Structure formats: structure tokens, C-alpha cells
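Input for the complex:
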Amino acid sequence: MRVLKLSKKDEKKLYDVLIKFGEVWAPVPKGSRYIYDKIEKKEDLVIYNEFVRTILPIKKFLVPQELNILNFKPSKYEKPKVDIPTRVIVGVPPCEIHALNILDKFYTTDFVDNYYMERREKVIIIGNSSLPDEYLFSHKTNTSIVEEGYDLFLIDLGDYYLVWVGSEKGDDIVRLGSDIFSEDVPVDVAKDFVTYREKRRKAFTKDIDLEGVTDLMELMYDADFWDEFGEKCLSCGQCTMVCPTCTCFNVIDEIELNKDEGHRRRYWDSCMFKDYSLVAGQHNFRESRAERLKLWYTHKLKAFIGHFGSPSCVGCGRCIITCPVDINVETVVEKLKG
Amino acid sequence: MKYKYKKGPELYTPIMMRIISKRDLTSDVRFFQIVPKEEFKHLDLDYKPGQFMMLSLFGSGEAPFSISSSPTRKGIFEFAIRKTGKITNKIFELKDGDQIGLRGPFGNGFPIEKMLGKDIVIVAGGLGAAPLRSLLLYILDNRELFGRLIYLYGAKSPKEMLYRPDFFEMLESDQLELHLTVDKGNEGFEDKIEEGMVTHLFKYVNDIDPINTYACVCGPPVMYKFVVNEILKYNLDKNNILVNLERRMKCGTGKCGHCIIDYRYTCIDGPVFTYWDVIHMRELI
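Predicted:
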């Protein structure tokens, strides 16, 4: 793998290079939180060396909340022509890159979803390593370090960033930005790197012990605490909206007023919603909130392993800070562990 | 991004079909025959018994329906559809010649290759006779490739019995051992239809060779446990007991999530599951 250096004094010039490849998006503050937003001026591009948890993960670029999949008239239909901009997303943390790898696997298994792929091809990922906050637990989900899934990956080593090149696209960027990316990476950089890794490893404080939860999901399936959580759950679906690996969608046909043409659209759906498993004749396979919660946690902590070999929780902590009634991976695992 | 994908026929754009005939099977179930419109005739639309299609009506949406016809009778797709919601209400308004979209086929279907040469026991309840008709016709059209064929069908009442005239005709046939029952009210049909649950027909299922028999079950959710318990008494191999299930679906391609059961998607790994699946996956039946 190619590794280069980017001096911090050249950090602001990074934008000038990236903008040649597409729109530049990065976390920006919004109220007390952060969102991925379009960066219009190079001064606004900030690389945070402390973990930034955007309200929505990068899935918002790949599976839009609302997606027009067909335009139809009574006798014919067409796939909408949309111009998807290339987006360079800067400051993507390792756990989200893991989530992206999961989405890639998901959308290319069995059937390849073209709506996802069209967007996926237009996304360039500039990841960066940062020090965890009190909610991040990616060290427990094996998602705190990335090996693939990024185009460039930055590690803050004081005066400079170590820049790992993860793809041809990433290599194009460093070649175009050869005045700021230096190939002069002496061997003693390794010492700084090890020191940083150690510091970061020790900075993780959220202790959610996921050891054995897959088996516990099986053994505790009929435990009473599910009903207690079911009582509390508001079925608001926020956990699924903010989860970087939740992808369920509904498909709805909408007709234009006073016209006989319309659109078939995909919308984010949530397995917390009551009608999620409802079929014709009003038979609901998951009538109770407890059943729906079990489905989500089965999927996150157990079932995904059967499909793809790893759990689909990446430890980002979004459910912990989002659920209004404190049902999240932490509280569920606490109960599972009894 | 290392994954390659084909920019070919779109997964989510339907093939346009035309309704060529329809008739009522019961007061709320209608039988539709559809064929591809001229511009789609060249497409290879092969399928297996037990697979399903997404029927698509612009403005109303899409829903999954089991294919009722057999791939041995090429060119025409048949569906038995119950009028029960927004989309099916609209489908019932369609006239001969009207168009309807079709995506698929989806799902695994019955493992026909493994079933060749075996005895087949089919158990249908209510609308379950629709998907199982595909299998039934397939076996009848390839009769020499299979062993015994036993078909048990239970409906609520004679009026609710799908394909009743066809089944009455088959009662005379030596190609299969057919037994019909209704929950109650068999008056007028006592010689053809028994009274009682479908499980009650297992008294006619005798001399089963457990190693060489497949059982295929489809019906309302409540029916599976009872029927499977009856089948288990014959000591069939767990993988030879097959259930064809229904779930909510929006895509057919394992993406929308709705049909998930444990770690499987009904639209990909089902809708035909084995009894082993039933044992090791929760919520299946």
C-alpha cells in the first residue's frame, strides 16, 4: 500500500485538490450536533482529530431518504434520468467505512442494486482516524481500524497526516496534489504511528462487552426484558434511521395531482413501524413492539453473521445517543448479559 | 469500489403484460391469465413451481404473487388473486386486454431436481392451492418423472374452494390420489368433499416410503404447525418437508428487508423452506 505525508501547513490546500474531483462534503456543526454538508469554501473544510458523530451516517449519499425509481404514465414508464454528482466525502471515521463495506456487500449479494451502485461509484471516501468520544465503541465491534473501503485515509500524527492510499482514485488524488502530498516517509514515522495507535486504543472508554452476544440472542430470545423494552419503545424508528447499516425501504406509487402520471419512489422504512411485516388480509407477522425490537437486534447482533460473516453493528454509538427511551445496543447487551 | 455490475435489464422495471382472460374462482378470488406484450415477447421468462412474481400496477404499487401456472405450459402466466387490499382491488378492476407489469421470477421455488423420481404429498389450505397448482400441473405434465402423487386440499367451504371443477375432474383421474375437505358445510358434495380440517385427510395417506417422499405444504399461517405435525408422523427426512411461505415484500431482490426471517430473506432463500429451516430459525411458521 502507498503511504504518503500531508503536512498540516498544507491542510487548507487539500480542498483545492479535492474540488477538482467533485463536490466536497464533510462534517460541519449543526446546533449541538454535526451533519455531512457540502463545503463551499476551503476555510470551511475541517479535519477533526476527535470523533465527530454526524446525525445521519454516509448512507444518506448512497441510499437517499427518498428516491424516485420510475416515472410512469398509463401506458409506459421510464427510469428517471438523474445527474448524480461525484462527491468527495472527507472525514469519514473507520466505523462508517466498515458500514460502507457492509452496504457494498449487501447491495451486491444475490442481486446487484443499480440505484445503489450508481451512487456508490460517485462517492470518494477520504477517511480519517480520530480519538473516540464517550459513546464510540467500535473497538468492541472490530471496526475501529480500517483496511479497505476508503480512497484515502488520514492519520493525524502531530505536525502532519499519514496518508494511506486505498484505491486508484485515491492515487489519482495524491498525484494531482503532488505539491502537498510528500512521498518522503522515513522509517522513523513508524514510531509516531505506534504511539498514536496506542494513545487512541487507550482512549476508548465505552465498555460494551459483545463477547458471546450472538449466542445470548438465541438463549435470551424469550426473556422478559424484551417485553419491558417493548412497553417503552415508541416505534419511532429513529434507531433505524441513524444506523449506518440499516437499509430497509418501502416503495410507494405517487400520482401527480390532476394528471395520470406519477412516480414510484423508495422511502426509508423501519422495522420498528407497525406495518413492517403486515401482509394482505391484515395478518401481521410482527404485531408487538417487542417482536420488532427482537428482529432489529437479531439482525444487528446475530443474523447478519449468517449472511455476511460479521455482525452489522459497527459501534458508532448513534442508537445510544438517539433513542429517546434508552433502548440501544448498550442497554440490550446489558440485559442479555443479565 | 471493486464490485462489478451489469448495466443490463433493470431489476426494478417491470415487463409489461396483457390480460387475456379472467374468471372468478370464489367470491373474492379471481384467476388471471396474462401474456407479455409484443415488445417483451422475446424475453426468456422461465420459472420454477413455487416461485413468485411482483405484479405491478402504476399508481397503486407492487405486490408479490405466487405463480399458479406451470412452466410446462409456456407463454401464459396465471395467478389466483384474492381481493384484499389497495393493489388487489385495482387488479380486480382490470379488463381483458388491460396491461399489468410483471417483475421476476423471484425466490427459490420447489427443488424439482431433487424431487424427481420421488413420491409427492401436496397439502394445500385455502389460497395455498394457488402456488401448489404450479407444482401439481408440473408433475401431471411430467407424470412419468415422479412416483405417487397425493394431494390433500382443505378449504373453508365448497364455495371457497379454488379450482373446484378442476379438482372434481381430477377425482376421477388415476394420475393422483386426491382428497378434498371443507371446514364445514359439504352439503350437496358429500361424495366428493369431506368435512373437517385438512389434517383429517391424513387418514388417506398410507404406505408412505419415508426415504423417497417429499411433502409440500402451503396455506394460511395458522395451518403449518398442524399439518407439519401430521407429516412428521411419517418420519420423512426434515429436508423433504417443504413449506411455501408468505411475507410482506417490496422488492423481491433481498434489499427492502421486509421479508426477513432470522438471517434469511423469504424472497431469496424462500419462499420454499424445509422443515430443518423451521426448526433452526425462529418465526418461520
